[in-house]
Amino acid sequence: MNFKLNETQLSGVFLIQRTRFNDERGYFTEFFREDFFKSQFTEINFVQDNLSFSRKGVIRGLHFQKLPFSQGKLVSVIHGKILDVAVNLKKSSKDFGKYVMAELSEENCYSLYIPDYCAHGFVALEDSYVLYKTTEYYHKESERGIRYDDPDIGVKWNMANPVISDKDLKLPSFKKLIKEGDYF
Ligand SMILES: Cc1cn([C@H]2C[C@H](O)[C@@H](COP(=O)(O)OP(=O)(O)O[C@H]3O[C@H](C)C(=O)[C@H](O)[C@H]3O)O2)c(=O)[nH]c1=O
């Protein structure tokens, strides 16, 4: 099998190492195999693929969709390098409010599986094309998020003067999100 699953310090979030076959022409790598995922995760069914391009310095996130439209995500980098972040929003979890960060790049062939009870975001360390599969369709009305620089979550983005959308700059704090009951 061309995939190796590694646990992270956040329960339910997994780093997947993809095999890359290099030769004089370039390289080949499998991005996704249903049999591998079904063998590791029982209820996983991806329904949508997304591609976003981010210039160096862009931060997108921290986003999630509320139940019943919550989305598990399999995040990969086709070209470039990102620091990918998942934040546990499951109230009953020992990891509630904690985050994990993983470097995903074309070079390291890592993908990150993020369960649907996590918020997701990333910073582009280089111009990057990010391809990710989701286990639920986009549902605009269910979109929620937390400010990228929330002090209670404390993500260390290591990016001076990041480029962030107006929409993301208006996202609530983690404390406000909890008050509104927007957690799992
Ligand atoms: C996510 C999404 C967006 N759109 C439309 C809505 C906007 O007109 C435009 C840009 O959307 P947005 O600014 O929300 O894109 P991102 O900031 O990259 O949002 C994503 O970034 C973080 C990191 C995520 O994990 C989520 O998938 C998602 O929230 O694409 C769609 O038509 N379908 C979609 O699935």
Automatic annotation (TrEMBL):
UniProt-listed GO biological process terms: dTDP-rhamnose biosynthetic process; polysaccharide biosynthetic process
Top-level taxon: Archaea
Sorted UniProt keywords: Isomerase
Record GO terms (molecular function): dTDP-4-dehydrorhamnose 3,5-epimerase activity
UniProt xrefs under Gene3D superfamilies: Jelly Rolls
Pfam families named among the record's database cross-references: dTDP_sugar_isom
This enzyme's EC code(s): 5.1.3.13
tRNA processing among keywords: no
Record-annotated active site: 63 (proton acceptor), 132 (proton donor)
Xref: SUPFAM superfamilies: RmlC-like cupins
One term under GO cellular component: cytosol
InterPro entries the UniProt entry points to: RmlC-like (IPR000888), RmlC-like_jellyroll (IPR014710), RmlC_Cupin_sf (IPR011051)
Site keyed Participates in a stacking interaction with the thymidine ring of dTDP-4-oxo-6-deoxyglucose: positions: 138
Assembly with partners or alone: Homodimer.
Record NCBIfam families: rmlC
Annotated function: Catalyzes the epimerization of the C3' and C5'positions of dTDP-6-deoxy-D-xylo-4-hexulose, forming dTDP-6-deoxy-L-lyxo-4-hexulose.
Protein name: dTDP-4-dehydrorhamnose 3,5-epimerase
Organism of origin: Cuniculiplasma divulgatum
